Amino acid sequence: MKKYLGPLSKDNPILVQTLGVCSALAVTAQLKPAVVMALSVTVVCACSNFIISLMRNTIPPRIRIIVQLLVVSFFVILVDLLLQSYLYDVSKMLSVFVGLIITNCIIMGRLEAFALSHKPFPSFMDGVMNGLGYGLVLAVVAFFRELLGSGTLWNHQVVPDSWYAAGYLNNGLMILPPMALILIGVIIWAK
Amino acid sequence: MKNFSNTYIFLYITALVVVIAVVLTLVSTGLKPRRDQNKQAEKCQQILRAAGHDIDRSKAVEAFSNLAEPLTEDGRQYRVICADGSKGTAIRLDGKGLWGPIWGYAVVSEDGQTLKGVSFDHKSETPGLGAKITEAAFLKAFEGKKLYDKDGNFVSVRVLKSGTASEIAEENRVDAISGATLTSKGVDEMMQSSLHSSPITNH
Question: Is the model's pTM score more than 0.80?
Answer without folding.
Answer: no
